[in-house]
Here is the input.
Amino acid sequence: MKIVIILLSLLSVKDCNNHKDANRVDTIVQDSSIVLNGAYVISKLLDDDVTEYNLGITFNAEEQKVNGFSGCNRFFGTYSYHENHLTFGALGATKMFCNDIKNKIESTLFENLSKIDSINSKDSIIELLSNKQVVLTMTKKQEQASVTFEYSALSRGSYTHISINKKEVSVILKRDSKPVIQPCSETNWNNLLEALKLVTIENLEHLEAPSQKRLYDGAAIANLTIIYNGTVYKSASFDHGNPPKEIQLLVKEILSVSENID
Here is the structure.
């Protein structure tokens, strides 16, 4: 694959007539706490939504190197970042043939990367600016976490153990029996992840059970365990059928998924 070197000018650009006044940032917060490292998804280029073209850029803060996807080609090069002042050096790119729309997006991206001189942050959104004009908007790419949900409910006469990850659902309904395993559907997994967003897993062990029937065999003893990126978070015991309110939805989803296992 041929490589074409795209030289990006580092000169200041005074003509900002292509941007709307609404995109002007009159005060850039010089906050050195803005960390620019890792992979980002480019959502807007000038005033255009470009999410459908999967534009992305990755910063290596240690080496001050950058690479990404321009909608047509992969690109790579160097950058300089200090106290929210950001400039790009010369970039290289692969030379692929794409349609006119993607070629235009790519040329617009490269042209505007050469003009960037600063960075601004609004919550989770990062804006790259040229002469206080927003030319590019991006968000940190969310890495897919490794998650496993485990739920158990034990009593003198019953036994339930449920384990769910992205690939499969495993259910054991009798002691010393083999698990019944089936694939986990995308819908069920997404429902579980949405319910997980409501849970502060670091506080899982501190959640208080709302009832105490398990203490006199009035309910099975239940526990919820969440294994997140290799770290195990386990709740204190609670009554099966009456979990702490903070995990009610998640437990409900776990039990709902397990009920569909034959």
Remarks:
- Confidence is low (pLDDT under 50) at residues 1-22, 25-32.
- The radius of gyration is 26 Å.
- Residues 29 and 35 are 14 Å apart (CA to CA).
- The domain at 147-259 is CATH 3.30.1560.10 (Mago nashi protein).
